[in-house]
Amino acid sequence: MFRSTGLIGRHCTIYHDYRIGEIRVEKGNEFVELRVPGGELYLKPGEAWGDVEPLAIQREMIRRTIKEHLDKEKRLRPQGIKVLSLFFIDAVEKYRKYDDDGNPVKGVYARIFEEEYKRAAHHPDYTSIQRILSGSLRLNDFKRNPQQFIELASQAINRCKRMALVDGIKYQRLGDEQFYAQELFEQEELTDPEKYV
Length: 197
What we know:
With 197 residues, this protein is of the alpha+beta class. It has 3 domains: 1-52, no CATH class; 56-160, no CATH class; 162-197, no CATH class. The protein contains 6 helices and 8 strands, in the order E-E-E-H-E-E-H-H-H-H-E-E-E-H. The strands form 3 sheets. The chain has a 3-stranded antiparallel sheet with strand order 1-2-3, with no helix packed on it. Strands 6-7-8 form a 3-stranded antiparallel sheet. The longest helix has 21 residues, at 56-76.
């Protein structure tokens, strides 16, 4: 029998008298039998019955991944462990596409991600995100355009990946070789917050 979930509401009776029958997972012959008052339906992967918001499942998966990521970050950051969460998507254009002039345009998943990330950033459990962005004077940049902010942060991370920083000495890779130039930091490099962000 279906039970109501947080997605539908705790007191929802829409699925009263509905039952799940056979579930077949044989490759190429997958289906779920849905027994409804007056008959049965055989739903194949991707099919739905009744009113279903087309992107409700994807939105919930994105929201849940963001929440899990932030929960792990809160727990593991004090131990010096960086958290990485990945999204595997069914089509790249659902995240990013390009207009006729070659300019990037947000896809539906990018818009959902931004909406859900903004929502999570204001949750009391994650106010540290807001505090970090405020402390770095970047909160307004994030609020104005979260996608651009994430892209700029990604570019900064990629720049830093090419440079190893150890004990006030920077090691910069020389071309494609396995050799590094070793230099002491200049004082302004150590104190300039814009240098690596």
